[in-house]
């Protein structure tokens, strides 16, 4: 019953008025369906069966008019009424079914919107601690299970209303017999609680297995090259077999549970019906005609009882999915980025904030887990001048990417400030600030679409000239022109049909096309060969006099022309200066990093 209440609250919130109207329609439809069965009474009355019983004389006085008519006329009237009721009931049932479908689809759209919009509103830190596959599982598999639960709920309401009205009709015919049957039904419902609990437990197992399967499949598809190069196909297939075996057993357990509950319910129902008939004839012998009608009525109701029980079990199995989505929305709400509003969606275009003087960081500190004493960044203060290149270096895990995330406004510092031209970044101006930033990651992300569509993603209004200008600046125009379809070339999933350097330059072009005031490259050249790296650096050299370039660098040879270099070590800014000044200090961390890289050939670029 808790499953029904949980779903009803959520459904009423989404479709309150429509749901109320539909419930009224269900009541009328069930009432008319019951009336078609109760037309047996006037038929038996016309035949003189029920009127021979004293108990029915007062109850059926409204049918006395039929006795004043010929039997054929009375039968014609009854059959006409029957046809009218059947047609009306089917029309109402059709309207109710269509409205139920509308409610389901509206709920589906609303639920998907709420889930996805909640994710979009969440801060970047929310995604750092979660597997992408878990979020995909929630947005697809778990959502589908919840939508199935909503469909079951509407079916349950329809069956429950029909059953209730039939019980009322039966009570009107014979109160004592009906009370006896209700008591038997209540006893069956009480005994079936264990099956509902078990269904809920199996539903939780379904969620966990689906989550594990999607996570594993996602990881392995992304790492298929490693799997093949290391000959891991047998072990991966064994993993797949084990997991699907568990999924199969879970589904079979659920089928066995449902069939067992239905078997026991039908056996118990048969015993109760037999006992009901025996008791009725033994203790209520004077109600023979009433007993006949009640038996026929409850013969129709017992399958409904079984159906209600089955739907309750199925509803219970979807509750874990429903709670998982509620928890996801709750977590997203706690991690919501207050600066983001999805009610307005301005078209991407030039940044709203042009940096004139520079970016200043004052006493910045940050912890991923505020309850722990470990700082990712601590007491950092620095000025990043506009229209120049600032490089950020340090060992892996030093805090470089965290610093970049805070500079970009993706995460908020625990203490300290980020100021642009002397103005602090707050929720009021954060969106304008973000729209002034172009970002190129180490692992370039491209959509499975054409080159044109990937570029227009950030600026749909861009002209042909703007597209080619951005490609020229990023040193990508040359290879794009050589492609058979040029801008209309499909590049595959994550740009797999392009080389690493081509993908990187294409992402750089996409960042440039927004005409950003700040360009951030997070180790964007670390995986490139010398030739492609030089092309990227040439593009940056052309850009740095126009915009503020911030580079997180792994290869120190690529930042020799930076106006300043920031060295971060264990979350602290420990050194700051030019390439020449830092490399000349033999005991500096930068010099040590440089010395470690000099063991390999270093290409020096003159731009």
Automatic annotation (TrEMBL):
<dbReference type="InterPro" id="IPR003439">
    <property type="entry name" value="ABC_transporter-like_ATP-bd"/>
</dbReference>
<dbReference type="GO" id="GO:0005524">
    <property type="term" value="F:ATP binding"/>
</dbReference>
<feature type="domain" description="ABC transporter">
    <location>
        <begin position="359"/>
        <end position="595"/>
    </location>
</feature>
<dbReference type="InterPro" id="IPR011527">
    <property type="entry name" value="ABC1_TM_dom"/>
</dbReference>
<keyword id="KW-0472">Membrane</keyword>
<dbReference type="InterPro" id="IPR027417">
    <property type="entry name" value="P-loop_NTPase"/>
</dbReference>
<feature type="transmembrane region" description="Helical">
    <location>
        <begin position="152"/>
        <end position="173"/>
    </location>
</feature>
<dbReference type="InterPro" id="IPR003593">
    <property type="entry name" value="AAA+_ATPase"/>
</dbReference>
<keyword id="KW-0547">Nucleotide-binding</keyword>
<dbReference type="InterPro" id="IPR036640">
    <property type="entry name" value="ABC1_TM_sf"/>
</dbReference>
<protein>
    <submittedName>
        <fullName>ABC transporter ATP-binding protein</fullName>
    </submittedName>
</protein>
<dbReference type="InterPro" id="IPR017871">
    <property type="entry name" value="ABC_transporter-like_CS"/>
</dbReference>
<keyword id="KW-1133">Transmembrane helix</keyword>
<dbReference type="InterPro" id="IPR039421">
    <property type="entry name" value="Type_1_exporter"/>
</dbReference>
<dbReference type="Pfam" id="PF00664">
    <property type="entry name" value="ABC_membrane"/>
</dbReference>
<dbReference type="GO" id="GO:0005886">
    <property type="term" value="C:plasma membrane"/>
</dbReference>
<feature type="transmembrane region" description="Helical">
    <location>
        <begin position="71"/>
        <end position="92"/>
    </location>
</feature>
<feature type="transmembrane region" description="Helical">
    <location>
        <begin position="21"/>
        <end position="51"/>
    </location>
</feature>
<keyword id="KW-0812">Transmembrane</keyword>
<dbReference type="GO" id="GO:0034040">
    <property type="term" value="F:ATPase-coupled lipid transmembrane transporter activity"/>
</dbReference>
<keyword id="KW-0067">ATP-binding</keyword>
<feature type="transmembrane region" description="Helical">
    <location>
        <begin position="179"/>
        <end position="196"/>
    </location>
</feature>
<keyword id="KW-0813">Transport</keyword>
<feature type="domain" description="ABC transmembrane type-1">
    <location>
        <begin position="23"/>
        <end position="317"/>
    </location>
</feature>
<dbReference type="GO" id="GO:0005737">
    <property type="term" value="C:cytoplasm"/>
</dbReference>
<feature type="transmembrane region" description="Helical">
    <location>
        <begin position="263"/>
        <end position="284"/>
    </location>
</feature>
<dbReference type="GO" id="GO:0016887">
    <property type="term" value="F:ATP hydrolysis activity"/>
</dbReference>
<dbReference type="Pfam" id="PF00005">
    <property type="entry name" value="ABC_tran"/>
</dbReference>
<dbReference type="GO" id="GO:0140359">
    <property type="term" value="F:ABC-type transporter activity"/>
</dbReference>
């Amino acid at each position: 019953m808790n499953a029904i209440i949980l779903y009803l609250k959520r459904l009423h919130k989404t479709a309150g008025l429509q749901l109320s109207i539909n419930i009224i329609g269900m009541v009328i439809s069930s009432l008319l369906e019951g009336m078609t069965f109760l037309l047996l009474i006037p038929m038996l009355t016309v035949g003189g069966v029920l009127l021979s019983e004293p108990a029915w004389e007062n109850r059926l006085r409204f049918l006395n008019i039929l006795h004043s008519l010929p039997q054929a006329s009375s039968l014609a009237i009854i059959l006409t009424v029957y046809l009218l009721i059947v047609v009306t009931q089917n029309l109402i049932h059709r309207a109710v079914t269509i409205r139920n479908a509308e409610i389901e689809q509206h709920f589906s759209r609303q639920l998907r919107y709420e889930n996805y919009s909640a994710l979009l509103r969440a801060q970047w830190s929310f995604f750092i601690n979660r597997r992408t596959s878990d979020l995909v599982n929630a947005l697809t598999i778990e959502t589908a299970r919840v939508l199935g639960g909503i469909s079951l709920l509407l079916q349950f309401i329809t069956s429950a209303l029909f059953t209730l009205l039939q019980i009322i009709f039966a009570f009107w015919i014979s109160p004592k017999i009906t009370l006896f049957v209700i008591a038997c039904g209540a006893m069956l419902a009480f005994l079936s609680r264990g099956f509902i609990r078990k269904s809920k437990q199996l539903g939780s197992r379904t969620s966990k297995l689906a989550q594990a399967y999607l996570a594993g499949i996602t990881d392995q598809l992304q790492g298929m090259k490693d799997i093949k190069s290391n000959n891991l196909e047998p072990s991966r297939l064994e993993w797949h077999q084990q997991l699907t075996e568990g999924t199969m057993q879970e589904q079979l357990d659920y089928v066995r549970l449902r069939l067992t509950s239905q078997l026991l319910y039908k056996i118990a129902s048969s015993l109760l019906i037999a006992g009901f008939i025996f008791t009725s004839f033994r203790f209520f012998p004077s109600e023979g005609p009433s007993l006949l009608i009640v038996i026929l009525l409850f013969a129709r109701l017992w399958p409904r009882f079984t159906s209600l029980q089955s739907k309750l079990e199925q509803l219970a199995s979807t509750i874990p999915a429903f709670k998982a989505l509620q928890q996801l929305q709750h977590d997203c709400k706690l991690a919501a980025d207050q600066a983001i509003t999805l009610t307005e969606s301005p078209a991407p275009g030039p940044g709203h904030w042009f940096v004139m003087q520079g970016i200043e960081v004052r006493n910045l500190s940050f912890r991923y887990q505020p309850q722990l004493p470990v700082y990712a960044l601590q007491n950092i203060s620095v000025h990043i001048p506009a229209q120049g290149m600032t490089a950020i270096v340090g060992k892996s895990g030093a805090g470089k990417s965290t610093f970049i995330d805070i500079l970009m406004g993706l995460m908020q510092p625990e203490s300290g400030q980020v100021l642009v031209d002397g103005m602090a970044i707050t929720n009021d101006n954060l969106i304008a600030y973000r729209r002034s930033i172009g970002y190129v990651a180490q692992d370039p992300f491209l959509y499975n679409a054409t080159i044109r569509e990937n570029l227009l993603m950030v600026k749909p209004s861009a002209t042909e000239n703007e597209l080619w200008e951005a490609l020229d600046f990023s040193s990508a125009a040359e290879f794009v022109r050589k492609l058979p379809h040029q801008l209309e070339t499909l590049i595959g999933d994550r740009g797999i049909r392009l080389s690493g350097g081509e993908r990187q330059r294409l992402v750089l072009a996409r960042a440039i096309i927004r005409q950003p005031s700040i360009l951030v490259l997070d180790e964007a050249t670390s995986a490139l060969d010398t030739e492609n790296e030089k092309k990227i650096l040439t593009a940056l050299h052309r850009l740095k006099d126009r915009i503020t370039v911030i580079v997180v660098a792994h290869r120190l040879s690529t930042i020799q022309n930076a106006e300043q270099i920031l060295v971060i070590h264990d979350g602290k800014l420990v050194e700051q200066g030019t390439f020449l000044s830092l490399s000349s200090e033999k005991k500096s961390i930068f010099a040590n990093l440089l010395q470690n890289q000099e063991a390999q050939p270093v290409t020096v670029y003159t731009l």
